[in-house]
Design a protein that fits this description.
Blueprint: H1 2-21, H2 26-32, E1 52-58, H3 64-76, E2 83-89, H4 94-106, E3 111-114, H5 123-131, E4 136-140, E5 153-156, H6 159-176, E6 184-190, H7 196-209, E7 215-222, H8 227-240, E8 246-249, H9 252-264, E9 276-281, H10 284-291, E10 297-300, H11 306-317, E11 325-327, E12 332-333, H12 338-341
Parallel strand pairs: 1-2, 1-3, 3-4, 4-5, 5-11, 6-7, 6-8, 8-9, 9-10
Antiparallel strand pairs: 10-12
Helix pairs in contact: 3-11, 4-5, 6-7, 8-9
The structure holds alpha-L-arabinofuranose.
Length: 347
Amino acid sequence: MKIKRFKKKTILTSLIIAAAVGLSGCSLGAFSDINQPASETKESFPQDENLIVVGISQVGSESAWRFENTQSIQQAFTQKNGFFMVFDNARQRQENQIKAVRSFISQRVDYIVIAPVIEDGWETVLGEAKSAGIPVIIMDRMISVQDDSLYTTHVGTDQKEEGVRAGRWLEDELEKDGRSDEQINIVVLQGTRGSSAQRGRSIGFDMIYETHDNWNVLTQRDGDFTISKGKEEMEKILREFPEFDVLICQNDDMSIGALEVLKEHGITTGINGDVMVISFDATKDGLTCVQNGIINVDVECNPLQGEAIREIINKLEAGEQVEKEYFVDEKVFTIDNVGEYIDSRAY
Ligand code: AHR
């Protein structure tokens, strides 16, 4: 424990020196904005040698969901809770994440938390973290590596199960509407290609899709989890496929973009609409669309993961064992239950 304290002091000192000489890099962006909760002053942090230093590589700020996920992390890793957070926003690029992780390693942080943009390509940098003896926690999306000793644990959402839930909802809804045997044409706005959120939701939905010969996916486009890409791709889809029965958007931001386009084209959505809409995330905006009947179902992806990660780090600090995988709780929202939850939804 003594050595660790010395190490923390060294990191904090090097951060201050870096800030003073105005170097660019992941630690400094965090240092000057996200890392500075209003209640804590810059002058106070170097004096506490006991703070646990956590380097966080966040995907970006592509969606309302991501904003909330970042907030959850910030609230968990405060100095009051015994942490010093070094935050990096990767702007949706894996190469930025790899740079950030290398910078965390050279600063000798105590823990590294990564929300990976995409699943593949992590072996080398995680091998470097392992050699440096820094535990890595994977947050939100998952990585794909042969050697699972490269990370300590994963805290996130079961994205394959989310896809299965979407498929099951469609199956039940078509049956209720007496449309089980009709030809059902589907278009899909996928999230960032190669991310576990995109792959998991696609794989999960496909598991149900494959059991229905009358379901037909017309096209799947990469909407990158953003409103603007959702809009752009929806415009393109409509030019090629002016008629379809179901729109699946792999997050609420893309749904919001797509709904705007459909409305402009005079296409109605949701309950009694021309097109059924399946969305993911269950943000306040998404749930409002469910309540207004323009999105049929919103499969929750829970961004509130900060506290769980903090608890895991506290366990590791206490020398306790942790599981290899933790999933946060998630629900499915439709017009039947959204009223119970929407008022308390903060994001
Ligand atoms: O990985 C979680 C996904 O990433 C959320 O569905 C999406 O909104 C975010 O950008």
